[in-house]
User: What shape does this take?
Amino acid sequence: MSVEKDVVFGKGGDVDLKLDIYKPATATKRAAIIHYHGGGFTGGSKDGLAAALGPMTQLGYVNIAAQYRLAGVAKWPSQIHDVKAAIRWTRANATRLGVDPARIMIAGYSAGGHLAQMVLLSPPESFPGDPALADAK
Assistant: This one.
């Protein structure tokens, strides 16, 4: 297993958004799971996911612990923009990561679970202000 820490995947305001990548030893096109931490939107960090992601990586998944801006740093819906940015980054870097871009999943814990559900259940235009929407016009 290899681990890349603090890879910048985007920028939210003045904040560099970072993620950690946990890859199995063999490099083939694998499914990826992007994970979001809990903490009531006011605490926690991607670093708290490390212990759980090691065993999942041993099962053959590429696991990514992604940062999102906390409520004290940015107001809603900035957090959802951060989640979507990590998904876009993972798709764009699928070859480098050894990931099948059609097999990217997201998982979250507590507040992170809320973010994962919001992204999965909402059309892209649901969150005005997303920088990606400006690019699409």
Remarks:
- The longest helix spans residues 78-92.
